[in-house]
Amino acid sequence: MPGLSLDSEVLLQLETPALVLDRGALERNIQCMAETGRQAGVALRPHAKTHKSPHIALLQMRAGAVGIACATVAEAEALAAAGITGLLITSPMMGAAKFDRLARLNRNHGVTVVADDSAQVTGLLAALHPGDRRLRVAVDVDVGQARTGVTDLAAGVALARMIAAEPQLEFAGIQGFAGHAQHIIDPEGRKAATARSAATLMSFAKALGGAGLPPDLITGSGTGTYGLDARGPYNELQVGSYVFMDADYARIKDERGQGLSFAPSLFALASVVSTNRPGQVTVDAGTKALATNGPSPCVIIGAPNGTAYKFAGDEHGILTIPNGAPPPRLGARVLIGATHCDPTVNLHRSFNLFENGNVEQWPICGRYGD
Amino acid sequence: MPGLSLDSEVLLQLETPALVLDRGALERNIQCMAETGRQAGVALRPHAKTHKSPHIALLQMRAGAVGIACATVAEAEALAAAGITGLLITSPMMGAAKFDRLARLNRNHGVTVVADDSAQVTGLLAALHPGDRRLRVAVDVDVGQARTGVTDLAAGVALARMIAAEPQLEFAGIQGFAGHAQHIIDPEGRKAATARSAATLMSFAKALGGAGLPPDLITGSGTGTYGLDARGPYNELQVGSYVFMDADYARIKDERGQGLSFAPSLFALASVVSTNRPGQVTVDAGTKALATNGPSPCVIIGAPNGTAYKFAGDEHGILTIPNGAPPPRLGARVLIGATHCDPTVNLHRSFNLFENGNVEQWPICGRYGD
Q1: Which of B19, B91, B248, B361 best probes binding to A when mutated, by most A CB atoms within 10 angstroms?
Q2: Which residues in chain A have their CB less than 8 angstroms from residue B120's CB?
Q3: Does this complex have an ipTM over 0.95?
Q4: pLDDT per position as a tens digit, A249-272
């Protein structure tokens, strides 16, 4: 199967900017992570915040995932509508409208949510109807990210007891997401942060065990630390970015200097719209096409080696061409590797899935207002 | 009319995160800029890249704008469908699909576009049908932003001659957008950059006059420099961000230390979803709700004075509460002022227009894939 290439006629006909997804690289990334999970004996519940795509979630499920993690109820609704089971919503939520929407999803499909405060549990209970299936609730533990999650053992045990005591709820286990550790470039620093998070999570697991509530589920992790987390205490990994890779995760290396075992699959297709100055060209992909909270793209297909991208407004980017190299001509197409994959995906309505010289549209679901 | 306030029941019922627009502040901003234009004797063609909203464009037209500037054909299509005339597309474009879409828009509604290369003009010509109304084309001039636009006088005159010689085209004038000058914080530096841009644009106007093609239209400017640009050589101003203001433009001051004459009207409404640590709360508005390419929000309604916002992932932000001040409670709502307004708007499907205690949905149009 030929890979992604600008020789393909179909990429010359798409209106730009457009999000292009290389199916070959995507599937290899999914298989590689699935194999890692199998070898380590740890389950995968890949995170849909990265792709917001029922199509990609189905590929992950077919590769053996036990379910899919979601950041929002809207993401979970889109996946449930595609028949995906094992949904876990990884953000504690508040608000009657949100609780009602979540309760409806649980009624129709079954879902697991997390909480870090009794008020969230009370709110969820108020939204459940008599006769609803039991809502699974996990305790979110702050393992160092300082964002959400209980911070002391007694509070964690009390929250688990409250959940377990409610007939309409089921205590599902614990979640610890070390978001702060995922992007630490120095391998030793990343390893140390991961070890601290693991120790925190383990102390909660032990305290809950001592209280007669041993957690079935110990969930968390991400693409930056999955190799470390697969050794425990996690029994499932919420990996997300590995499906696409991006400029951020391209910087992550292990102690032997090895990068992650995944290839870039996500690109912004852009057109050269101005060649008004020597040494640079202007393309029609800017801050509305690529997320700005990541390093510069590390892959640009269709421009000379060493070409650098910089943002130049809502609709423009500048490619700086190395001295002496021939710039892409006016009207030429380039494929710009994702900066930060999750928020880049969120800027687009669909993926243009490239496979074997053809393109298929895969919708991006659960954006705000969907 | 009571202003935007979290005492309003309707803001407690919206699902978060949501984009909230204060109609009072919006209308005052629109009137203030319209009055500035009238007093200076310069036309306004406000830029829709900021709001992507036919509703807001109609308010601008009712306040006396001669038309609306658009960054993309999709934005222009959405405005044309709402009956808005005087559309100018401010980005040179390339690609047969884009040219066809543009030609269709011109056929049905009439439009002005810009070009900085003969290949763009040739492409546009090829897309026009016999009997189409004449397409108005302006020459885009690089006034120092180094993004698009002709960079030398001879090339500018040659391009204008090419346009003027084509029976299906009309030479509309020149555009010079000093994007690089808009956000210069130091007033002297901003003034100097604006003077250099003005001199460049004036030299093109003179050269074209000498060639028998004096430009009717001299268009450009933005919210950071409109006061300087209103003195010339511009005869119309493409101001955008003034309708909303944001943390970026809040830093802009004139030589007397005066800020811009516009008030913040655009906010992300968020819920406090975790209060797990003292001195901070976590809200459900992160990098998918607020653009990351701007300073931290300078207005947060519903939190103590001195509260600071920082991004904490796709769906989260952290509010750091000043020592001793009472933090918002779990489940409370806060209104977070826009970081950078254009790309923040682009993250949402609609504005929740707040007026007098009620909310109305105003769609955000022309996002990629629309």
Answers
A1: B91
A2: 330
A3: yes
A4: 999 988 888 999 999 999 999 999
Q: What's phi and psi for B333, nearest 5 deg?
A: -105, 145
Element (H, E) at A311: strand A308-311
Q: If you measure CA to CA, which chain B residue comes closest to A291?
A: B292
| β-strand partners of A333 | A271
- A169, A137 in Cβ contact below 8 A? yes
Q: Which ranges of chain A would DSSP assign to H, the alpha helix?
A: 9-13, 23-40, 54-62, 73-81, 96-109, 118-127, 153-165, 179-182, 187-210, 226-229, 341-345
pTM (predicted TM-score): 0.97
pLDDT in tens, A119-166: 999 999 999 999 999 999 999 999 999 999 999 999 999 999 999 999
**Cα dihedral A291, A292, A294, A299 sign:** positive
Contact by Cβ (8 Å): A42, A217: no
CA neighbours within 13 Å on the CB side: how many for B313? Answer: 23
- Please name every residue paired with A215 in a beta bridge, in sequence order, or none if there are none: none
Name every chain B residue with its beta carbon within 8 A of the beta carbon of A274.
Answer: 92, 116-117, 147-149
CB contact (8 A) between residue B316 and residue A91: yes
Rounded-to-integer distance, Cα A118 and Cα A99, Å: 14
Asked if residues B121 and B159 have their Cβ atoms less than 8 Å apart, the reply is yes
Sequence-distant (6+) residues with CB within 8 A of A18 are: A268, A269, A348, A352, B368
